[in-house]
Design a protein that fits this description.
It is a single chain. The protein has 3 helices and 4 strands, in the order ββαββαα. A hairpin with a 6-residue loop joins β1 and β2. By secondary structure, it is mostly helical. A two-stranded antiparallel sheet has the order 1-2. α1 packs parallel to α3 and α2 runs antiparallel to α3.
């Protein structure tokens, strides 16, 4: 949901698409290229949202899949253990994807943001 700064057309971009040309980094309506700084800021913002979603996620029971509704219980009333809704490996995989996009497109701002998060997300 990225809006073109020239014509306000809203488009979805696939940064992982590598088809040999940068046509997908241009507006589909007016064909003007997106501002690389704005693209990087958008990606950094989505990365921060992904991280925030990980930190404020619900814990679920491994047995009954109930969401934990208190702060103190070590186990679910059904005696199941609590687990993260978003796994550590999922977050690490997303960080690796952002890192690859930053490297492929030579996005310095995104690369700095990923490298800044890397020590805090080490598992």
């Amino acid at each position: 949901n990225l809006a073109c700064e020239h014509c306000a057309f809203i488009a979805d971009l696939d940064f992982c698409k590598q088809d040999g040309n940068d046509l997908h980094l241009k507006c589909q309506q007016c064909h003007k290229p997106f501002n690389p700084t704005l693209l990087q800021e958008y990606l950094v913002q989505t990365l921060q949202i992904e991280l925030q979603d990980y930190y404020v996620q619900d814990l679920r029971c491994t047995k009954c899949n109930k969401v934990k509704d208190d702060l103190m219980s070590a186990h679910c009333p059904c005696s199941g253990s609590w687990k993260n809704s978003i796994s550590d490996s999922t977050l690490i995989q997303k960080l690796a994807t952002y890192e690859k996009v930053a490297s492929f497109y030579n996005y310095e701002l995104l690369n700095l943001a990923v490298n800044d998060l890397r020590p805090r997300v080490a598992f």
